[in-house]
Design a protein that fits this description.
CATH class of the largest domain in chain B: Mainly Alpha
Number of helices of chain A: 12
Number of helices of chain B: 16
Number of strands of chain A: 4
Strand content of chain B: under 5%
Distance between the termini of chain B: 27 Å
Largest sheet of chain A: 2 strands, antiparallel
Largest interface: A-B, 46 and 45 residues
Order of helices and strands of chain A: HHHHEEHHHHHHEEHH
Radius of gyration of chain B: 24 Å
Order of helices and strands of chain B: HHHHHHEHHHHEHHHHHEEH
Helix content of chain B: over 70%
Oligomer: heterodimer
CATH topology of the largest domain in chain B: ABC transporter involved in vitamin B12 uptake, BtuC
Structural class of chain B: mainly alpha
CATH architecture of the largest domain in chain B: Orthogonal Bundle
Chain lengths: ~300, ~425
C-alpha cells in the first residue's frame, strides 16, 4: 500500500512535468499547425541556463530568469526562422525545428561540454517532506508538483480570463477573422511560440536537477512528449493531460516493479512501454484518447 | 506520357552513372577514398529509398533507420550462420537477404505507421524508431547489446573467384547493388504505383475520389522503400563487418533525412547528391573538427530556409538561364556572394572553434591559423573573428541582393520570350 502511494505520487509529479512540456507543444501545434521538434531542446536549454544562473545568483532567481530567457530565444526563433519557412508549408516548418534541435544540442555540446552537469536541488528544498509508513517523500517532488499545478492554473486562467487569452483562443479556430478584427496574428503566434518555449524552459529548470542535466536529455524526453501528443490526440490539451499522467505513472511503476515476463523484467521493458502504448492505441483508436480529427 | 522509342538523354545519363561507378576508385585512389566511396554507395541507396517516402509519397519519416538497421541485423546473423557452415549462400546475394528482412519489417510496422499521413505519420515513425531502439537494449541476444554483433564477410567458397576480402571488391559489390537499386527505384517512379504515390502526396482527397485507398498506396510505397533500405543495411553490414544498436538509432534516421533533404527532395537524383555531400561532411570533416555536426546542422537549416529544393534545385535553376546564354551576367554576382560566404564562414568557424577549445577539458586553448597562433582566452581574437563574421554577413547580404536583382531581370526576359 505504502509502495503504491509513494509510487503514485512520484508518477503524478513526473506526469505533471511531462504535461508542462506537452502542453506547450500542443498549444503551439493547435495554433500554428507546427509540431515543434525542438521543444525538448528548449527543455534542455532551460536546465542549462538555470544551472548557469543558479551557480552565480541562486536557484530562486534562476526559476524566474531561465524560463524568460528560453522564452525570448523561442520568440527569436519564431520571428527570424519559423516565419520565413512558413510559406513552404508544414513539412518545411517541421524540418526547420528538426534542424534547430540538432543545432541546440551541438551548441550545448560546445558551450557546456559533453558530461552531465552538477545541477543540484537547492539546499532548502533538499530533504524529506513527510513520511508515509516508514518511507520518506522528498520535498523537491512536492515542490515540482506545486510549480506544475500553479503553472497550469495560471495558464488556464490566462487562456480563459484574459483578453490576450481570448484572442489566442479565437486565433486557434478563426485566424482570418481575428486578423480582420485588427489583431496582429503573427505577433500572437510569436507570443505563443515563445510562451511554449518558456514553459519547456520552466520544466527544464525544475526537471533538470530532479533527473539529470546532460546533452542527451532532450533526445531522451523528446520522443516521449511526442508520444503523449499522439496518444492524447493531436491538438487536444485535455488529451495531453490524461496521456501525460498515464505515461508518467506507467513509467514510474514499470521501473519499480520487479515482475518479469518470459525472462524480461518489466523494468527492462520500461523504455519501450510508451511506444507500445502508442502503437496499440493507433491500431484500436487512431484518433488518440481525446482527439477529434482523424487523418 | 508521350511515347518515346529511345530516350537518348536518359541512356547517356545512366551509362554515364555506370561509368562513374566503374572508374571512381581509380580516379580517387587510396584506402581513405575507397572507404568514402563505399559509404557513399551505401548511403545513396539508403537516401533514395528514403526519398521514396518523403519525395515521392509525401511521408516525412523520422524512423527510416529501423528498416536498414534490422536488415543489417538479419544479414549479420545469416552471415555468421554461413561462417559456422550451416548453409551456403553466395555473398553477393546477401543484400537480397537484408532487403527481404527490410520488406518484412516494412509490412509489420508499415501497417501501423501508414494509417495516418502528414505530421502524425512523422511522429508515429519516430515512435516506432524509438521502440525498436529500446528493443535493441532489451534483447541483447539478437542485437548484441552495446558492443553489437561482429562478423567476417569472407566465408565459404569464393564466388567467381571473388572472396570479398579486399576493400575494392566490396566497393564493386556496393556499386553494382547501388546501380541496380537506383535503376529499380527510378523504374518504380514510372509505374502506376509511383504515379499514385505522387497523387496521394499532392492531393489525398482527390486520390480517394478517383477510387484509390490512400492508406494502401502509402503502405505499398513504404514496404518497397524498406526493401531498398534493407539492401543498403546489408551492404553496410558487409562493408563494416559489424552491426550495432547505432544502426537502428534516431541518429541514423536523422542522418538519412538530412542527406536526402540537402540533396533535394523534389528530384529523383537529389538524394544521390545529398548522400555524397553528407558522407563528405561525416567522414572528411569529422576528422578535422569536433563541431562538424554543428556545421552540418547549420547547413541543413540554411537549406530549409533558403533552398527547400536542395542542391539539386539550385543546379537545375541555372539550366534555363544557361540555355538562354545569360549565365555570364550572373557569374560576377555569384563569385561575389561566394567570396562573402567564405569570409562569413571563416569568422563563424573561428568563433565556434574557440568556444569548443574553451569548453573541452584538457584541450589546448592555443589555436594556429595560417601560421598565426593565438589564445582563445584572450579578447582580441573574439573581436577579430566577430568582425570578420559581421563583415562577411553584411557583404553576403549585399551580394545576394545583387544576385536577386539580376536573377529577377533575367527571369522577366525569359518569361517575356516564352509568352509572346
Amino acid at each position: 500500500m505504502e509502495f503504491f502511494l509513494v509510487q503514485s505520487l512520484n508518477g503524478v509529479s513526473y506526469g505533471l512535468l511531462l504535461f508542462m512540456l506537452s502542453s506547450g507543444l500542443t498549444l503551439v501545434f493547435s495554433l500554428m499547425g507546427v509540431l515543434n521538434f525542438a521543444h525538448a531542446s528548449f527543455y534542455m536549454l532551460g536546465a542549462y541556463l538555470a544551472f548557469q544562473v543558479s551557480t552565480r545568483i541562486g536557484f530562486w532567481p534562476a526559476l524566474v530568469a531561465a524560463p524568460i530567457l528560453v522564452g525570448a530565444i523561442g520568440m527569436l526563433v519564431e520571428r527570424f526562422g519559423l516565419r520565413r519557412v512558413h510559406k513552404h508549408g508544414h513539412v518545411a516548418e517541421l524540418l526547420f525545428t528538426f534542424g534547430l534541435a540538432y543545432l541546440i544540442e551541438e551548441a550545448v555540446h560546445l558551450i557546456w561540454g559533453r558530461a552531465a552537469l552538477d545541477y543540484r536541488v537547492p539546499a532548502e528544498l533538499d530533504g524529506p517532506l513527510f513520511q508515509i509508513m516508514g518511507s520518506q517523500y522528498p520535498i523537491y517532488r512536492g515542490f515540482m508538483m506545486l510549480v506544475s499545478v500553479a503553472m497550469l492554473v495560471s495558464i488556464w486562467l490566462a487562456l480563459t480570463r484574459t483578453r490576450i487569452g481570448l484572442v489566442i483562443q479565437a486565433a486557434l479556430s478563426h485566424p482570418q477573422t481575428v486578423e480582420a478584427l485588427g489583431h496582429n496574428v503573427p505577433r500572437v503566434f510569436m507570443l505563443v511560440f515563445g510562451g511554449g518555449a518558456a514553459l519547456a524552459g520552466l520544466a527544464g529548470v525544475i526537471g533538470g536537477n530532479a533527473f539529470v542535466t546532460d546533452p542527451g536529455m532532450a533526445a531522451s524526453v523528446g520522443p516521449i512528449i511526442f508520444v503523449i501528443v499522439v496518444v492524447g490526440g493531436m491538438g487536444s490539451l485535455a488529451g495531453a493531460f490524461v496521456a501525460s499522467l498515464l505515461i508518467g505513472c506507467m513509467q514510474t511503476f514499470a521501473v519499480s516493479l520487479d515482475w518479469s515476463l518470459g525472462g524480461i523484467s518489466i523494468a527492462q521493458a520500461a523504455p519501450m512501454l510508451p511506444y507500445l502504448l502508442m502503437v496499440l492505441l493507433l491500431i484500436f483508436r487512431p484518433k488518440g484518447l481525446m482527439g477529434t480529427r482523424e487523418g | 506520357m508521350k511515347y518515346a522509342p529511345l530516350n537518348l538523354g536518359r541512356w547517356i545519363l545512366w551509362s554515364g552513372a555506370a561509368l562513374v561507378f566503374l572508374i571512381a576508385p581509380h580516379l580517387f585512389s587510396g584506402g581513405f577514398a575507397l572507404t568514402m566511396l563505399t559509404q557513399m554507395g551505401t548511403l545513396i541507396l539508403f537516401a533514395l529509398s528514403y526519398n521514396m517516402l518523403l519525395g515521392q509519397g509525401g511521408m516525412l519519416s523520422f524512423g527510416h533507420a529501423v528498416y536498414s538497421g534490422l536488415g543489417a541485423y538479419v544479414t549479420v546473423h545469416v552471415l555468421n550462420l554461413m561462417g559456422k557452415g550451416s548453409f551456403y549462400l553466395p555473398v553477393p546475394l546477401l543484400p537480397l537477404v537484408g532487403g527481404l528482412a527490410g520488406l518484412f519489417f516494412g509490412v509489420l510496422f508499415g501497417y501501423v505507421t501508414t494509417k495516418r499521413a502528414g505530421t502524425t505519420f512523422a511522429l508515429i515513425s519516430l515512435g516506432i524508431g524509438e521502440m525498436v531502439f529500446a528493443c535493441a537494449r532489451m534483447f541483447p541476444g539478437f542485437f548484441g547489446g552495446e558492443a553489437g554483433i561482429s562478423t567476417n564477410r569472407v566465408v565459404g567458397q569464393p564466388f567467381l573467384g571473388l572472396t570479398f576480402g579486399p576493400a575494392l571488391q566490396v566497393y564493386y559489390l556496393v556499386a553494382v547493388w547501388c546501380f541496380l537499386g537506383m535503376a529499380a527505384m527510378f523504374a518504380l517512379t514510372q509505374t502506376p504505383l509511383g504515379r499514385m504515390a505522387n497523387a496521394v502526396r499532392d492531393n489525398p482527397e482527390r486520390a480517394e475520389f478517383v477510387g484509390y485507398n490512400t492508406q494502401h498506396v502509402r503502405f505499398l510505397q513504404l514496404v518497397l522503400s524498406s526493401f531498398f533500405a534493407g539492401v543498403s543495411g546489408a551492404l553496410s553490414c558487409i562493408n563494416f563487418e559489424i552491426v550495432s544498436e547505432e544502426n537502428v538509432s534516431a541518429i541514423r534516421s536523422g542522418g538519412v533525412l538530412l542527406a536526402t533533404f540537402i540533396g533535394g527532395v523534389p528530384f529523383f537524383f537529389g538524394p544521390i547528391l545529398g548522400a555524397i555531400v553528407f558522407v563528405f561532411f561525416v567522414v572528411a570533416l569529422s576528422g578535422f573538427t569536433k563541431a562538424w555536426l554543428l556545421y552540418l546542422g547549420l547547413f541543413f537549416v540554411l537549406m530549409v530556409v533558403y533552398a527547400p529544393g536542395g542542391i539539386a534545385s539550385l543546379i537545375l535553376m541555372q539550366l534555363p538561364v544557361m540555355r538562354a546564354g545569360r549565365w555570364r551576367e550572373l557569374a560576377a554576382p555569384y563569385a561575389l556572394a561566394a567570396l562573402a560566404g567564405v569570409v562569413a564562414l571563416a569568422g563563424l568557424i573561428g568563433l565556434v572553434e574557440m568556444v569548443y577549445r574553451l569548453s573541452e577539458q584538457g584541450a589546448s586553448t592555443v589555436l594556429t591559423v595560417l601560421g598565426l597562433s593565438f589564445d582563445a582566452r584572450a579578447t582580441a581574437p573574439w573581436i577579430v573573428f566577430g568582425a570578420v563574421l559581421a563583415a562577411g554577413l553584411a557583404a553576403l547580404r549585399a551580394a545576394t541582393r545583387l544576385v536577386g536583382e539580376r536573377w529577377g531581370m533575367i527571369q522577366l526576359d525569359l518569361q517575356a520570350k516564352a509568352a509572346p
